[in-house]
Amino acid sequence: MKLIQLFALLLFVGLGVSSQAQTRFKISEMEAYPRLTEIEKAHFAGLEVDAIVNKDNIELSFITGGDDKNPFINTYDFREKIQGEKIYTENTSDGHVMVMITYKKGLFEKDELTMRQFSPNGDCIGSFVFKEERN
């Protein structure tokens, strides 16, 4: 009986620690409106993201893969969960959504992050899809 209790304790501790795990994503699709230039496509082609999911937010470290090894780090606030996808946003001071992150956790497939950027009038001006890097 004590062995089962010890196993359960280790399982719960392991699940609690795993929520802070970092996941690496690589860019798989990108679009901009009206369109991306060839220079922008080349710049974003090697883009990778490290994601740390917390209870109230997601922290993304953007790594360009070029000479600059310092990642750009930004945190997005949890907004809601819809059909298994977590939605995170970055809002302006007056409440308009500037960036929306959708995190789709895959059980048998790779996790997926979708990042959409919006203009001040609410039009989508860019969209990036990242797939989890797994072997």
UniProtKB/TrEMBL annotation:
Keyword terms of this UniProt record: Signal
Signal peptide feature range: 1-21
Record's protein name: Uncharacterized protein
Source organism of the structure: Flammeovirga yaeyamensis
